[in-house]
Design brief:
Blueprint lengths: L1 E2 L10 H12 L9 H21 L1 E2 L12 E6 L2 H11 L3 E2 L2 E8 L9 E4 L4 H10 L5 E4 L4 H4 L3 E6 L2 E7 H6 L3 E2 L1 H6 L2 E3 L4
Parallel strand pairs: 3-5, 3-6, 6-7, 7-8, 9-11
Antiparallel strand pairs: 1-11, 2-10, 4-5, 8-9
Length: 193
């Protein structure tokens, strides 16, 4: 296991730096008096991260039906996050492909490129990940997300949205992650997490 910090000097894309810097600079308790507003802010920050993750992940060519096929984000467990992500990705492209959001229910089949599993239930996240082998880039927000097989797991550290990355899970899912993404991760693990 090795630890990475948030150096933004290495970023070459100004928009990515702005999103990550803003996400790291927004304290959750600033809106603690209004829990709904705080949750909405956290959801917006996570949605921005999820969209940016797509630009720093390389999916196998075989994961697309054809050259014009969209990059698909599946959201399980949060209608609000699905709506926020749909707003964020509207009209946007990643690698020349349109981005679409699908709202999923547990047990629903179908392949997605990025699967966001909402909630803090680690057992549920593990169950979903074991039954969703077609999800190439699973993203969770539970305490044991990486141990359950997630590639990226959100955490709140010092009242800010951060994320950890499992290189082993990425390798198992045949997804290559850019070193630029790894430099802004809170923690990058290789081997037993």
């Amino acid at each position: 296991m090795f630890r990475r910090h948030w150096p933004l000097a290495g970023w070459t894309l100004a928009c990515a730096a702005a999103v990550f810097a803003a996400a790291g600079a927004i304290p959750r308790p600033a809106l603690a008096q209004d829990g709904g507003a705080s949750q909405a802010l956290e959801r917006r920050v996570k949605a921005a991260f999820i969209y940016k993750f797509l630009g720093y992940a390389e999916f196998p060519a075989a994961s697309f039906a054809d050259p014009g096929a969209p990059v698909t984000i599946g959201v399980l467990g949060s209608d609000e996050m699905a709506a926020e992500l749909a707003r964020v990705v509207a009209g946007r492209h990643v690698g020349g492909r349109p981005v679409v959001v699908r709202q999923l229910r547990e047990g629903e089949g179908g392949s997605v490129h990025l699967l966001f599993i909402a909630g803090n239930d680690s057992a549920r996240a593990g169950r979903v990940l074991r039954s969703s082998p077609a999800a190439l880039l699973p993203v969770t927000e539970c305490d044991l997300g990486l141990q359950q097989g997630s590639v990226i797991n959100f955490r709140i550290i010092d009242e800010r949205v951060r994320f950890d990355v499992s290189l082993d899970s990425a390798e198992r899912n045949n997804v290559k992650l850019s070193s630029r993404l790894l430099t802004v991760a809170n923690r990058v693990v290789k081997g037993a997490s």
